[in-house]
Amino acid sequence: MLLLWCCLAALLSAGCAGTGAVRDTAAGDDAVVRLYPGTGARAGDLVVLGHGFLREQSTLAGLARTLAAAGVDCATLDFTAQRPWDGAHLRNGLAMIRVADRLGARRVVYVGFSAGGLAALVAARNDPRARGVVTLDLVDAAGLGRATAAALSVPLVGLVGEPGRCNAHNGARLVYAQASLGRFEQIVGAGHCDFESPTGALCEMLCGSADPARSARVRARARAAVLGLLDPVDSISAE
């Protein structure tokens, strides 16, 4: 039993309800996409959110609703290429780009939790419409994050929690250092599961309890980061 929990912990640390649904069958994928329409007039702007390793898109529903309430169209998807032995981060990034294609986006911010942050980096690196990428307690894998960040031409904002086994003890700070426009922000007291919204029993069992107040703080900072990437001049003026 101890071995089983250790294996599960290793898997998670390796990258640990919408108003509409679109089925995307491009390139052989069978991914269901949930769209959260924004309440403002931001035609062509889109945020695409990627979940953590072996998780699902419902774990980012809270953040999607927060961003939609701020006026930005949001989309979540399930990464169908992942397997317990293969995170498929490159394929996941391309799947995020296909979501933006399918929804007719003109400006995109890619956001990802844990290993989903790697997919978001890949998407932002390869999509000329990208205005930036926001990672939520990113976990790198085999140096992919560092290599992608080094080639990234748009801003990278990393929101990070306290060091722990499920975020590789904040090893992703090396990723932000590689990005010419990279920066990270520590969410004081936040654990890995606070970056999901909602999280689940498995994450909390392996990575520690989540707290609603901390999770709300993460969503607020992610909202500010996304809006700052879409409207950098307005963001600077507001500060």
TrEMBL record:
The keyword Signal applies. InterPro entries: AB_hydrolase_fold. Residues 1-17 form the signal peptide. Keywords: Signal. It comes from the Bacteria. This is AB hydrolase-1 domain-containing protein. It comes from Marichromatium purpuratum 984.
